[in-house]
Automatic annotation (TrEMBL):
This is Enoyl-CoA hydratase/isomerase family protein. It holds the Pfam family ECH_1. Belongs to the enoyl-CoA hydratase/isomerase family. SUPFAM superfamilies: ClpP/crotonase (SSF52096). CDD domains: crotonase-like (cd06558). InterPro entries: ClpP/crotonase-like_dom_sf (IPR029045), Enoyl-CoA_hydra/iso (IPR001753).
């Protein structure tokens, strides 16, 4: 299994762990399917009232879609649609309105933003770094940029998207711009997120889910309108798979800086 879940029945808090540390918790197709199934099943599980998501190991929360998985997904010929296995890995895209808190450790990049974008708020270890590699590898950052532009100032979201792997946003900077709500002591992100989740899970589930839905509705209209453009932009702007592979293979030749 590439997804690990534990639930504390006494508090109503579930801990969801992306468990591919040897692959920096990159999401392959089985993990994507497990995430979709998890949120769909959670809609009917009244014993869980709040969820914390994190990544196994110390190096990464999640590094997006596994490159092998990306090459295994056939794409439609039409420029009006794409086949994206990450579109339903988050709770809201599966009509699940139980609150999700992300405990970010290490790298969070690319497709990780699908999960972070559907989290209520982020708690980060000081080691956490955020970046978006798409442009470096000849790909359009569409869904990721749309989600991040709703979580931080426009200029910060665009800077992250355009600089690609050349720059990583530190946990400190992410807190300054509002992407992260709390930076913990080293190694304390999961515990801090669980403490928040326990408080939330102690409130009325109906009140909590209604509040989540209300907050989401405040930005959903803009989000839906923006996401409608994403397939066209990706189809028109992505480099061919072979060229993406060349750029990916050359990624270690350049450095990056963290701010």
């Amino acid at each position: 299994m590439t997804l690990r879940t534990t639930t504390d029945k006494s508090t109503g808090v579930a801990l969801l762990t992306l468990d591919r540390p040897e692959k920096l918790n990159a999401i392959d197709l089985p993990m994507a399917e497990q995430l979709t199934s998890y949120w769909q099943e959670l809609r009917y599980d009244d014993s869980v009232r709040a969820v914390v998501v994190t990544g196994a190991g110390e190096r990464a929360f999640c590094t997006g879609l596994d490159r092998d998985a990306a090459g295994a997904v056939p794409q439609p010929n039409s420029p009006y649609t794409i086949e994206d296995p990450l579109l339903r890995i988050g709770p809201k895209s599966n009509d699940c309105w139980k609150p999700l808190i992300a405990a970010v450790n290490g790298m969070a990049c690319g497709g990780a933003f699908y999960l972070l974008g559907e989290s209520e708020f982020l708690v980060a270890d000081p080691s956490a770094t955020f970046f978006d590699p798409h442009t470096t590898y000849g790909m359009v950052s569409a869904f990721e940029s749309i989600l991040m532009a709703q979580r931080m100032p426009y200029g910060e979201a665009v800077r992250m998207a355009l600089l690609g792997t050349a720059e990583r946003m530190s946990a400190r900077r992410a807190h300054e711009v509002g992407l992260v709500s709390e930076v913990t002591e080293p190694g304390g992100a999961v515990a801090a997120a669980v403490r928040c989740a326990e408080v939330i899970a102690g409130h009325s589930p109906e009140a909590v889910e209604g509040t989540v839905r209300a907050c989401w509705a405040a930005r959903e209209a803009t989000r839906a309108h923006a996401l409608a453009y994403a397939p066209h932009l990706i189809t028109l702007g992505n480099q061919p798979q072979a060229r993406q592979g060349e750029l990916f293979a050359a990624r270690r030749k350049g450095g990056h800086r963290t701010r």
